[in-house]
Amino acid sequence: MAIEEEGRAFVRALLRRNRVLRVATTSPSGAPTVAPIWYWFGGDFIASTMPESATVRNIQRTGVATVLVDEGADYADLRGAIIETSARAYLDSEAPPELMAAIAEEDAKYADEIAELVIVRDALSSGTASRRPTYRLLLRPERALWYVLGGSVSGRVTFSDATTEDDGHAE
Amino acid sequence: MTAMPSELEAVRAMLRRARTARLATITPSGRATVAPFWFAFHEDRLFLVADDNATVANIRRDPRVSLLVDFGTSYADLHGAIVQGHAEAHAPDTAPSWVRDGIAAYSRKYASLEDERLSLQSLDHRRPRERWYVAITPRRARWFSVGGFFQGSFDWTSESEAAASSKRIGESEQA
């Protein structure tokens, strides 16, 4: 359906032009938690680097994360998407080679931000926080709820290969 | 670990100046989800108006929520606070007075945008949608700065009681 394709294009464009999103995961107790992550979008997956944290442990346990990417200040330009993803967290030594290759390619694009990250890390490297291991997050969008005009207009789309298989019972 | 009173004050200050909060709730399947809301921080509680039926339905099923405020756009200046708390949703006509007071603070904070909201919502053909007043009572808080390099967490209730009692001691010493 045309609107479905437009919806996916809208969500991808949101992900391409933003740098920070918020990720919700479920704690062992069943309660939700939420954290901001600095990320980049590789076309069909979201990648991020994050120190060991509750979010990383929740992703390792559940294999899923729901992310929000939103923008706008006044009501009329509030728009965004809530995206359900399948999620993995890897140490660099465990990450699949294709992920590390994509990370290297994207690292080159964001060299300025990474330079800032590196000088901050170096400056803080004597702090205890920096001793936590760093994980690479890989989030694959599966379904999204998108909205524009402060939520007055919204729709749902699916991503991934499951789309065609699910046609019979998606509605 | 016991927080310094300044840690609680720093989180309160972030909650006062933030414009948008991201609220995480639990869906019927047990999966966490997250949505953006305007909110007001009033008398140490968080208040928002929701006509998002999914979030309200989630809260009514499971009151545990996590609310994030954050600031900054590059990695190094990312800082903010995450409040874990207990949420309750009230219908406007039966909301207790402390909830109505919080919602009044919300209305003052966003007064300039209300006309715009109402005119845009006339576009929404799913209307009429119910509106709910949501109040969140903090239980714990975490803060982070420099992209998460520095962080801490504390029990909101015990810290606010400790801060209040040390203030009372300070006042009685002055008397």
Topology record:
The complex is a heterodimer of chains A (171) and B (175).
Chain A: H1 2-17, E1 20-26, E2 32-41, E3 46-51, H2 54-62, E4 64-71, E5 79-90, H3 97-109, H4 111-124, E6 134-148, E7 153-158, H5 162-165
Chain B: H1 5-17, E1 20-26, E2 32-38, E3 40-42, E4 45-50, H2 53-61, E5 64-71, E6 79-90, H3 97-109, H4 114-121, E7 132-145, E8 150-155, H5 156-174
Antiparallel strand pairs in B: 1-2, 1-5, 3-4, 4-7, 5-6, 6-7, 7-8
Provide a descriptive summary of the structure in words.
The complex is a heterodimer of chains A (171) and B (175). Helix content of chain A is 33%, strand content 37%. By secondary structure, chain A is an alpha+beta fold. A 6-stranded antiparallel beta barrel of chain A has the order 1-2-3-6-5-4. The two termini of chain A are 13 Å apart. Chain B is α+β, with helices and mostly antiparallel strands. In chain B, 35% of the residues lie in helices and 36% in strands. Chain B contains 5 helices and 8 strands. Chain B has helices at residues 5-17, 53-61, 97-109, 114-121, 156-174; strands spanning 20-26, 32-38, 40-42, 45-50, 64-71, 79-90, 132-145, 150-155. In chain B, strands 1, 2, 3, 4, 5, 6, 7 and 8 form an 8-stranded antiparallel beta sheet that branches. In chain B, strand 5 (64-71) and strand 6 form a beta hairpin.
The chain pair forming the largest interface, with residue counts per chain, is: A-B, 48 and 44 residues
Integer average pLDDT of chain B: 87
Quaternary assembly: heterodimer
N/C terminus separation of chain A = 13 Å
Apparent shape of chain B = globular
Helix content of chain B: 25-40%
Report, as a whole number of angstroms, the end-to-end distance of chain B: 32 Å
Q: Main sheet of chain A?
A: 6 strands, antiparallel, barrel
How many helical stretches of chain A?
5
Q: What proportion strand of chain B?
A: 35-45%
